Amino acid sequence: MDPVYDHLVTLLTDKFEVDAKEIRPDITLAALELDSLAVVELYVTLQEHWGIPLDEDDSAAELTLEQVAQAVTTQLSADGAPADRGGAPR
């Protein structure tokens, strides 16, 4: 299991009230009906949780969940932090 993807799914269902049946790796944030403010809030939440910077721009809503999770994982790798640290913020 990918802890970053799992955390993303939890955020989407708990905080953004996305129906869990709609969530899959290849769906975009826009297809989940997250507006631009919700996308920004999602990115800020991910940044705060993992303690990493993320680039959020106008095209972020067109990213798939897998791409968002990969961006977080890439930043964690660049930062030298393990992605499976149990979700504890730094």
TrEMBL record:
Carrier domain ranges (all copies): 8-72
Coiled-coil segments: none
Matching SUPFAM superfamilies: ACP-like (SSF47336)
Short name of one Pfam family: PP-binding
The protein's name: Acyl carrier protein
Biological source species: Streptomyces yunnanensis
